Amino acid sequence: MDRRLLGIPASPGIAVGPVHLLRWEIPEVRHRIIPDDAVRGEIHRFHDVLDRAKERLRQIRERVEATTGPQEAAIFDVQRSILDDQELISAVEELIKQNLGAEKAFEIVMFEWTQRFSRHAHPMLRERVGDLKDVEIRVLTLLLDLPDHDPVDLPKGANAILVTHDLTPSLTVQLDRQAIAGIATDAGTRTSHVAILARSLGLPAVVGLRIATQELTGRETVILDGSTGILAINPSHQDIESYRERARHEEVAEVELRNLATLDAVTTDGVRVTLRANVDLPEEAELAARSGAEGVGLMRTEFLVVGRATMPTEDEQYRAYKRVVEAFGGRPVVIRTFDIGGDKLPVGGFPAEPNPFLGWRAIRMCLDQPELFGVQLRALLRAAVHGDIHIMLPLVVTLDEVRSARELLDEAARVLEARGAKFRRDVPLGVMVETPAAAVSCDTLAKDVAFFSIGTNDLVQYTLAVDRGNANLASRFTPLHPAVLKLIQRTVVTALENNLDVAVCGEMASQPLMAVALIGLGVRQLSVGPRSVPLVKRIVRSISVAMAEEAANAALRAATAAEAEAELRKRLSGVLGEDGYGSASTDSH
Ligand code: PEP
Ligand code: MG
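# magnesium ion complex -> structure
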């Protein structure tokens, strides 16, 4: 083996394959002046490249339509229409006639267009900025004769390890899983959405490698170990064999855990803990139901949107929600309304913001776009006829948001009634407690909602002011910080006082040591990725609430996250195993 890079384990599993290096960035363009007699030839070259780009888009569109679906493929129609735009073509020709090289002329025009679109009052046009960027990369790559790193154009069976700086969820959902065997990124952490999505897709992933795209050329073979965070470059046959052996062991351990699916999640002192699954894509519903989960604690509906050029219709959404509800029979299914924004953007993106995590996202965006929100609410009320749907609002900071959402929910019911559609009106409405504002003032929300669900990924991010996706800050993202534990405790106590259900659906619930702390803090409902359900069940079955409470109290008294972890480990390592995590791996997915 040449060397190893160590990153953050993001999605377990071992993959061995050739590197597919993805540099999806606008290439640098030199200022090049051409003589008068070269102008005609340069315009001709530009048109030739446009034709080649269109042909490329046609091929990719076909592939995406076959592998992912027509909605995802439609993105490429938008990009093609940009290449056909007469105004754009004439503007580039004009600059070439002023003796600029085609690549510089194209870059200048694309810059003007991007500026114009990103400031446009209409959100649909602002969304086109992402398409402009894709088109710019594609055309400049051809004009400059650079290697083509197209992210969605790998042949089936390539078994490639995609190595890139950062991967957006929209690219992730477009990836052909029959071509990609694993994902490695420079950026990102365990709680970035690309990591969450990789776990949902069952794709091994290592994130936060920092220098992978600099170190690799694209000609290497690598072993990617999603459980330990190792990327081994140019491994020997022996290395590969020993990793394959590890992969076989992991599979056996997983089968053993799966056998717990039918057992109850009850502690040794007889307390029931409800274990639900987080579902990111409707296609996961059946797998999640087989994991032994007692319903869905969080369905992230925004993944119905990312990777598409248009919003899903009411009927499309209705079918997606119905599928999940039906997979779980009569069990509760908590569906969160669109949490678009932050690092979860649809294709084309929303307007670029200087602080997207503090920006126009989630419930803010939905309330500002009642038509878009209304479509989702109507689909949810209709799907509720088929099971026990609960609606959950993300990123709530004030009661006003809950009240406005409820008004829109009533309005959705009125529209459905007038239409004579079948729907359920009495769907419980709850909130995610994932901002310090919501946690500190959850008493002000309690009277108006049916349940709380604590989103620890964002709660930690906003409480500690640590970007959840920033690899350089990963060691500062500490859910056991006293501030976080106190906010969780406060939320649980308030919920109990008000007779409300309270769950935890952030990643903390799937980290064994932390799951025990949550149970000790009084949480009786945990929602975790489907692949984590068996492990968390095993943990619940091996501890007593008395011991969890004692451990949580000790953690609460600690002054730092490290001390809190030491307190938990001291009390629990005997029960959960020497490493305090209940398994050989610290990753629970
Ligand atoms: C959270 O913030 O903890 C959460 C569960 O939601 P998401 O990870 O989708 O932001
Ligand atoms: Mg969140």
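# post-check
The chain has 24 helices and 16 strands.
Confidence is low (pLDDT under 50) at residues 582-589.
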